[in-house]
UniProtKB/TrEMBL annotation:
Organism: Gasterosteus aculeatus aculeatus (three-spined stickleback)
CDD domains cross-referenced by the UniProt entry: AAT_like
Classification via Pfam families: Aminotran_1_2
Record keyword Cytoplasm present: yes
EC number: 2.6.1.2
Compartment annotation: Cytoplasm
GO terms for cellular component: cytoplasm
GO process annotations (BP): L-alanine catabolic process
Pathway where this protein functions: Amino-acid degradation; L-alanine degradation via transaminase pathway; pyruvate from L-alanine: step 1/1
Designated name of the protein: Alanine aminotransferase 1
Names of the cofactor(s): pyridoxal 5'-phosphate
GO molecular function per UniProt: L-alanine:2-oxoglutarate aminotransferase activity; pyridoxal phosphate binding
Reactions mediated catalytically: L-alanine + 2-oxoglutarate = pyruvate + L-glutamate
Length: 493
């Protein structure tokens, strides 16, 4: 409410109020940084002020920020970035020669020989060329034109940009976009903000979160009655669900998109995070090209691989970098895309520089290669071990069942919430899994994200927990979750 000025004159009403603001923004929700996380931050402050709690530390297992979890950064990346930021260090003999030559190349490709300059809106040419060569290597030689590559401020930026191009219409012609449930809530948030229709298709939890074409068809047929479905988004490997889809599944999805005339958006940011035996990452682009010209010349695809966040395993999310490649996009729309990205001038140049290193790391024979491989291998092995550990421990708890964490960096176990607790939550106006996670935070200091933030089948409850903490911390965390769940069941059964 407006505050009355002291002289008694009536206060001027604010131009911007909850009633007059953009209603689409009010519909946006983003559980990954929602009320639980806000409370976790408050608890951290209270602990630092000496207020007594039943725990001594808040463990933020809600988000995939590996550096915040103490993961070792990759030395080569830091060296090159340091050299690019402060080129005087190029005279310092403690830096290896390959880091120096990489820094010189990046600096030369930046306007004004400085990372402080703007770059081209689509991204630095030399970096887009390296990305294109990388995608060709990744996909076994299929051509990639650097002009089809757009560097972005992380995957989020690329995904939202593509959705902006796709969304239009009003009423029954409003654009519908198919997203998985559970989903990474960037999608639901962006669709809410753009006032598009979210079309939910459910992943099959009983079959390790696999994707059934019959479920896609059901969701599409129902949606066609009230909107205009135009795009299909797939996250593979999955967040929050950690599954890795089979090659057959990807082929079926491409065929479905072709048949139903849907624009495909493939979120492959976790492409390098595959742990389970027998699982392999198959890129949409590679499968599309293997299916022959009937598909590779027609299906419109945007994919978002290897971002600084995660897919690359290097966890540089704060630098904000990434890229997308677009395939079979109409030339006139592509011109609109180029215009759209030019409005934000350019993605951060340090993020672009790092992206270049991610797609083009030290090669055999270069001074930094051995150390780089050692650091990278240590990261992958540790993640694989922690994925297994998480699944194993959670499955020993009565009332928790967890699918194998085949990839990405989260587990998404199903939890039993007794009727009595569901009622108490409903009486408080809370989702039952929010009630559960809030209680766990207050009693143990563990910060998880309730499954309702990602979407789940009615009557089922989950939480998302990252597998990133160092092994000893993860073990403590899992044991605390176990203890809490047992107590919770006893209290409410
Ligand atoms: C599936 C998925 N897509 C996109 C993103 C956004 O990544 P970025 O930090 O590159 O914007 C994330 C981040 O966690 C993610 O999990």
């Amino acid at each position: 409410m407006s505050k009355m000025p002291e002289n008694g004159a009536s206060a001027r009403a604010k131009v911007l109020t909850l009633d007059t603001m953009n209603p689409a923004v009010k519909k946006v929700e983003y559980a990954v940084r929602g009320p639980i996380v806000q409370r976790a931050v408050e608890l951290e402050r209270e602990l630092s002020e000496g207020i007594k709690k039943p725990f001594t530390e808040v463990i933020k297992a809600n988000i995939g920020d590996a550096h915040a979890m103490g993961q070792q950064p990759i030395t080569f990346f830091r060296q090159v970035l340091a050299l690019c930021s402060y080129p005087e260090l190029l005279n310092d003999s403690t830096f290896p020669e390959d880091a120096k030559s990489r820094a010189r190349r990046i600096l030369q490709s930046c306007g004004g020989n400085s990372m402080g300059s703007y770059s081209a809106s689509q991204g630095i040419d030399a970096v887009r060329q390296d990305v294109a060569r990388y995608i060709e290597r990744r996909d076994g030689g299929g051509p990639c034109d650097p002009d089809d590559v757009y560097l972005t401020t992380g995957a989020s930026d690329g995904i939202v940009t593509m959705l902006k191009l796709l969304v239009c219409g009003k009423g029954a012609t409003r654009t519908g976009v198919m997203i998985s449930i559970p989903q990474y809530p960037l999608y639901s948030a962006a669709l809410a903000e753009l006032d598009a229709v979210q079309i939910n298709y459910y992943l099959n939890e009983e079959k390790c979160w696999s994707l059934d074409i019959s479920e896609l068809q059901r969701a599409l047929d129902e949606a066609r009655r009230h909107c205009n479905p135009r795009a299909l988004c797939i996250i593979n490997p999955g967040n929050p669900t950690g599954q890795v889809q089979s090659r057959q599944c990807i082929e079926d999805v491409i065929r479905f998109a072709a048949q139903e005339r849907l624009f495909l958006m493939a979120d492959e940011v976790y492409q390098d995070n595959v742990y389970a035996d027998g699982c392999r990452f198959h890129s949409f682009k590679k499968v599309l090209f293997e299916m022959g010209p009937e598909y590779s010349d027609t299906v419109e695809l945007a994919f978002f691989p290897l971002h600084l966040q995660i897919g690359s395993l290097y966890f540089l999310c704060g630098f904000r970098g990434g890229y997308m490649e677009i395939i079979n996009m109409d030339e006139e729309v592509r011109a609109q895309l180029s215009k759209l990205v030019s409005v934000r001038l350019c993605p951060p140049v340090p993020g672009q520089a790092l992206m270049d290193l991610v797609v083009n790391p030290p090669q055999p024979g270069e001074p930094s290669h051995e150390k780089f491989i050692k650091e990278r291998t240590a990261t992958i092995s540790a993640l694989a071990e922690k994925a297994k550990l998480t699944e194993q421990v959670l499955n020993t708890v009565q009332g928790i069942s967890c699918n194998p964490v085949q990839g990405a960096m989260y587990s998404f176990p199903r939890i039993t919430i007794p009727e009595k607790a569901v009622k108490e939550a409903t009486d408080k106006g809370q989702q039952p899994d929010m009630f559960y996670c809030m209680k766990m935070l207050e009693e143990t200091g563990i910060c998880l994200v309730p499954g309702s933030g990602f979407g789940q089948r009615d009557g089922t409850y989950h939480f998302r927990m990252t597998i990133l903490p160092p092994k000893d911390k993860l073990t403590t965390l899992l044991n605390k979750v176990k203890e809490f769940h047992q107590k919770f069941l006893q209290q409410y059964s």
